[in-house]
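Submission sheet (multi-component)
Chains listed below:
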Amino acid sequence: MASGRDELLRQYRQMQTIRRFEEEAARGYAQAKIGGFLHLYIGQEAIAVGVNDALEEQDYVFQTYRDHGTAIARGMEPKHAMAELFGKDAGCARGLGGSMHFFDVERNFLGGWAIIGGHIAVAAGAAFKSKYTGDGRVTVCFFGEGSTNIGGFHEGLSLAGLWKLPIVFICENNQYAMGTPMKRTSAISDLTLKAQGYGMVGERFDGHDVQLVRDRVKPAIDRARRGEGPTFIEINTYRFRGHSLSAPAKYRTRQELEERKRLDPCAVTRQQLKDAGMSEDELVKVDAEVDELIDEAVAFADAAEPAKEELVFSTVYATRQHGTPTLRATGYPDGRETGHASDAAKQENA
Amino acid sequence: MREIRYREALREALMEEMERDGTVFLMGEEVGHYEGAYKVSQGLLAQFGEQRVIDTPIAEAGFAGIGVGAAMTGLRPIIEFMTWNFSFVAFDQIISNAAKIHQMSGGKLTCPMVFRGPNGAAKQVAAQHSHSVDPFYTNIPGLYVVMPATPRDAKGLLKTSIRNDDPVVFLEGETLYNLKGEVPEEDEDELIPLGVARVAREGDGCTVVAWGRPFHNAMEAAEILAKDGIELEVVDPRTLRPLDTDAIVRSVKKTNRCVVVHEHWPYGGPGAEIVDVVQREAFDYLDAPVERVAAWDVPMPYASNLEELVLPTTERVLEAVRAVSYR
Ligand SMILES: Cc1ncc(C[n+]2csc(CCOP(=O)(O)OP(=O)(O)O)c2C)c(N)n1
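Outcome: structure written.
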């Protein structure tokens, strides 16, 4: 079945792109081209790609700070993602957001959110808008298992369930919240039980097989689109790296990690392609093409202009009204072009 | 005097107070098995066990509330926020409950607890992780707000805060955890009173009021200006609520000039409050308008070239002092 294999190859290419992107990001972090926190998605790639394949272009996607993979699966170009990590103007948030705050509004990737639970209600709000306007879109909201104990999660799910909003909640259960295994943070181990209380369907499955992910998520998306309400999906997965690049990973055993790596989603998909008749040579060629794409992304990000000072003030407010929108103290960019709304208002009045 | 790090000073305070009083416990995310996101609580689980060093799920409103309930019924909770940015989801517990219980109950109940964790920007952690929360919590009557800049103050103030019978918002500095400084020996049990400022450097050229990380910029500026013959008097309030206004006004009456340096945004907050007190109580003594050095009034951008512009620097302290000194 050539078309099935082409599909799988495309999925592999995307997953491998995410993998290689993040390996290079880790290198960039070590070289101090990237600052702050860097949370890698390595090990979870089949979820981002599988879920995206169940979505339409018009659908909205929300993710936590562990957002590179989801953004790239959605279609963000690696070079714009890398430029963001490098703090460059060509980045997807013009260097203002960084690793934790990727945005790609054209592709309906609506962030990159760094406070646990907060974006869950926000995502429900996007779904509310779809119900309100009848625009036919579905929202998907990702978060970790550690995020299912906070108010934002419970209130977001409560309202989504009550109002039958067109949303699918996807809990990527990678077993640990920073250094804490789930058994120390949740009184129950089947997280779909939490969603049951909010009147929504629950699903659970393993997340290392990209097509399985797509096929299991699709009915939930369809249900949401038909107006039959939200679904909560718990996908069993594992992150191969630490919580973030600055966090040590002493809380788990080497053996456990090696065990889980046997289900490396990229390797699993690669093997599926071989089973479907692709040769090692063909796959090596694909890998080389991905490497090249990522090398280009790094070169692009290296060469890009730094983030622009004038954006710092001009992006605080979208509207220009009266008054002094941002206050000054010593050391403010006096007399320089700041995009400061009061400066603009003064100019308009002049 | 021996030198230890700010992080170790905090740890000693926790350890000593937990040894002293069995009602004191530490609760928060990753405080136990992981030994703290910033390793402040290293060794505490081993020493005090899971009953008193308690790892929580990510549920700040929940465990802050647990702290309030336990405090009003007789325990002395120390609630750690991994960073103060995450206290916003627990805002209601701190403001509506912890700060209000004593008066709301006609003075019959108390809420002896400490909320603590790192405050302010770290390095490139962007808009949602870079808040200086001092203005939010200093606005609330019923809360003590403490913000130590040195290891010695960190230890002595935390010990006092734990023994205090009202809720304390204890603001540490993520970028200060590694800072080394002199701290008295463990058996000295030094308690630094809340609400007392420290004159960290005496001078008659200009008063600089600074706390938290920018305190160190002020001290650096003082070194530089001393070479130009300007002697700064650096006053660290250490406690932002209640504020030692007397110490600040006394200093300004001596130097006739004042610069306030802080990392929080310029709109209101202790920065503006200090200027207000100075202009009312030392108006006739001022030779120049009071200047402020603050973070730029914007959400924190990620890129390092921009973050450097937003945060207060020694350079900007120098600029402000020169402005008020007309030099
Ligand atoms: C309200 C809040 N509290 C604490 C944090 C700090 N924090 C960031 S990620 C994280 C662990 C999250 O684990 P999980 O939800 O399982 O997602 P994962 O990182 O495993 O993808 C914590 C405690 C935060 N960002 N927000």
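Remark: The CA atoms of residues 40 and 211 of chain B lie 21 Å apart.
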